[in-house]
Automatic annotation (TrEMBL):
Residues 60-213 form the Dynamin N-terminal domain. Residues 299-364 form a coiled coil. Gene3D superfamilies: P-loop containing nucleotide triphosphate hydrolases (3.40.50.300). The keyword Membrane applies. GO terms for cellular component: membrane. This is Dynamin N-terminal domain-containing protein. The lineage of its organism: Bacteria, Bacillati, Bacillota, Bacilli, Bacillales. Keywords: Coiled coil, GTP-binding, Hydrolase, Membrane, Nucleotide-binding. It comes from the Bacteria. Pfam families: Dynamin_N (PF00350).
Length: 553
């Protein structure tokens, strides 16, 4: 029994047939997804690929120069003149020839499918084959050749034709080709177009066999044939092209000593024998290429938007930055945002730093010594209840003694504060603007003009009632020391506040300049993000299609 072109003899063959059916269904599923995304042409190619896949149909495409003898070679291989062999471009469309019952069909764009008798109406069919404006493709089936109904030869237009329709027809057929035979005229083997087209075929993963035809033109005394073959192989290798085989043929002189026609025909028969394996590999490769083709369609559909955003990129200039370089823009943006954050924190960080240094300066200032303690002890005694000096005029003398002891402590304490705190305090405060790259003469003068008075009132307010022990003298000295440091802290904080305001003003100026650059970089980064979104859509689409493809394998 036969089904789908494969004789079902055992479960292994049935599995192979099921594989081809599943693949065909997958190509149809891919076509539906592509169609939903606004692609019109690629889904049609996938539908064609699906039809071919269901039957595991092998297509051998003949490509090359229109004068390379493709049609004559195909007629010779078939043993029947189905194709015209005039040295003019004969097929604006792809002509497909396969085995099977006699039939010739022309698939037109406007009139549907037209049928002809290949034995009696080939001239009409040939005319349709030339007319690329109304005909999409031509298919001829003919019995008695080395082809069967599941193996076909595709005759494509000459790739060197000036007619754009010819080139489009050739390229549009490549997704259906499992193997490509690239034919060249002996005299035109090393034409650049041959290298370009053959490389394109190899890059698409197609098995490519080269046929150098009309070798009867070779003149041996000018160059021996082995050297000629070596030059051909080296020329293709220079282009990094490694064909699956090279055949040298002559149809005009079948007995030519270098003619490889029989080997070439044998190779074609072997390809047909290996049909399922070749088709299985080829259709997967073709589907992958059609996915890439669809992604190009998606990319083209986004081209206007991409160009608009790229034009906006070019219109934004940021000194020292290539606006088209997304990585450079992002790096610069991160640097500018870090700078902006640092600017925003600069004043607060400065305040914290200065307050910490002020605390260290005050904590390290020693304001009382043994002499201070003695002066304090004497001062405190004069402040005890019942303190009295002399008998005559005691009240006046007692008050004078109290004043003398107070002054002694004031002189002592002022001296220690001036030498151990006031000098260092003013020196430190005066330098703070410079620490932050600021200059303010008025501030500097104000710092050094500052005077913190140490008065009798200051001394007296730190006396605690009822404290009269020697231990209290030490506590009292600590209290007046702490009290004086509090006064210096209060004054110091007011000057720190002035420095912080100076820093804030400088930051405002710098931020205004930096903000313009930051804004431009943010705009550039946003545009790059939008462009990356377009690329991501393309990648996501490709990933989705590849996932469908892999799921169907």
């Amino acid at each position: 029994m036969e089904k789908g072109g494969i004789e079902v003899l055992d479960s292994q063959v049935l599995i192979r047939e099921t594989d081809f059916s599943r693949l065909a269904h997958t190509w149809e599923e891919l076509a539906e997804v592509m169609k939903s995304q606004g692609d019109e042409n690629t889904p049609l190619k996938l539908i064609q690929l699906a039809a071919k896949t269901k039957n595991a149909e092998l297509n051998i495409a003949f490509c090359g120069h229109f004068s390379a003898g493709k049609s004559t070679m195909i007629n010779t291989l078939l043993g029947v003149n189905l194709l015209p062999s005039n040295p003019i471009p004969t097929s604006a469309n792809v002509v497909k020839i396969r085995g099977g019952e006699k039939a010739a069909r022309v698939f037109t764009m406007n009139s549907g499918v037209l049928t002809f008798d290949p034995d009696t109406e080939m001239e009409k069919l040939k005319q349709f084959a030339v007319d690329g404006d109304t005909v999409e493709s031509v298919e001829v089936s003919y019995p008695g050749t080395f082809l069967d109904e599941y193996a076909s030869l595709l005759d494509t237009p000459g790739i060197d034709s000036t007619d754009a329709a010819h080139k489009i027809a050739t390229e549009s057929a490549l997704h259906l080709a499992d193997v490509v035979i690239y034919m060249m005229d002996y005299n035109h083997v090393q034409a650049e177009e041959n290298f370009n087209f053959t490389k394109t075929l190899k890059d698409r993963g197609k098995p490519v066999y080269l046929v150098v035809n009309m070798i009867d033109k070779h003149i041996d005394f000018e160059l021996d044939f082995d050297s000629y073959k070596e030059s051909v192989e080296e020329a293709f290798a220079t282009w990094n092209i490694h064909p699956d085989g090279i055949f040298y043929t002559s149809l005009a002189e079948p007995d030519h000593s270098e003619n490889m026609y029989e080997e070439f025909k044998g190779m074609l028969s072997q390809l047909i024998a290996d049909r399922e394996k070749l088709v299985g590999t080829s259709v997967r490769s073709a589907a992958e290429h059609l996915i890439d083709e669809h992604i190009q369609v998606v990319r083209t559909s986004q081209a206007d938007q991409r160009q608009q955003w790229e034009a906006q990129l070019d219109g934004l200039e940021v000194e020292g930055i290539d606006s088209r370089n997304a990585a450079a823009v992002q790096e610069a943006l991160e640097q500018e945002e870090a700078t902006a954050a640092a600017l925003e924190k600069r004043a607060e960080d400065a305040r914290v730093q200065m307050e910490k240094e002020l605390s260290v300066l005050l904590d390290n200032a020693r304001l009382t010594y043994f002499s201070t303690n003695e002066a304090a002890r004497s001062y405190l005694e004069s402040r005890k209840p019942g303190f009295k000096v002399g008998l005559l005029f005691a009240g006046k003398k007692t008050e004078e003694e109290r004043e003398r002891r107070e002054e002694a402590l004031l002189v002592e304490f002022r001296e220690k504060v001036a030498g151990n705190l006031d000098f260092h305090f003013k020196e430190w405060l005066g330098k703070q603007p410079q620490v932050f790259d600021l200059r303010n003469e008025e501030y500097h003068a104000s710092v050094h003009a500052t005077k913190i008075e140490i008065t009798g009132e200051f001394l007296s307010k730190h006396i605690k009632e009822g404290a009269a022990s020697s231990e209290y003298v030490l506590n009292y000295c600590a209290d007046i020391s702490s009290g004086m440091k509090l006064e210096y802290r209060r004054v110091g904080l007011s000057f720190i506040a002035q420095v912080v305001e100076m820093i804030k003003e400088k930051v405002r100026v710098e931020s205004a300049a930096q903000g313009e650059r930051l804004g431009a970089l943010r705009e550039l980064a946003a545009l790059h993000q939008k462009l990356a979104g377009l690329a991501a859509r393309e990648e996501e689409t490709k990933g989705r299609l590849l996932a469908i493809m892999r799921g169907g394998e």
